[in-house]
Design brief:
Number of strands: 4
Radius of gyration: 23 Å
Structural class: mainly beta
Helix content: under 10%
Strand content: 15-25%
Low-confidence stretches: none
Oligomer: single chain
Shape: elongated
Strand order of the largest sheet: 1-2
């Protein structure tokens, strides 16, 4: 319910499943009003494209607690947007941010969290 002469912010989430432009018309029905208002939402899905060289890595056998084997691979970002690469098991900033978000109950019922876009490596708002 929105009181007379008041405003209400509405959050609309766009979660693309492919790279393309899409337009969605969302009909808004208002109680005791026969008019249907259409909210037109436009978005562009941009999916990241990553590649590894070499595409396959083969490691030979090694014994536990002895010399480990190290193989280098090159990660290529062939998309038009920056990406941030991290390991969720070893990245302390990621662990700290997850703890903050869980403590704040910031996730919705689908385990999604919405915030303004931020640059790679930038702190939570």
């Amino acid at each position: 319910t929105i009181p007379p002469l008041q405003r209400q912010n509405v959050i609309i989430a766009y979660s693309p499943t492919e790279t393309r432009t899409s337009t969605v018309r969302i009909p808004l029905h208002i109680a005791y009003n026969n008019n249907i208002y259409n909210l037109i939402c436009k978005g562009i899905g941009v999916m990241t494209r990553l590649g590894f060289e070499p595409g396959t890595v083969t490691l030979g056998p090694c014994k536990p607690y002895e010399n480990s084997q190290v193989v280098s691979v090159m990660l290529k970002n062939t998309s038009d947007v920056d990406i941030e690469v991290f390991n969720s098991e070893f990245d302390s900033q990621h662990k700290e941010e997850e703890a903050i978000l869980l403590a704040e109950d910031a996730y919705n019922t689908k385990k999604e969290f919405y915030t303004s876009p931020r640059l790679p490596g930038q702190q939570l708002p």
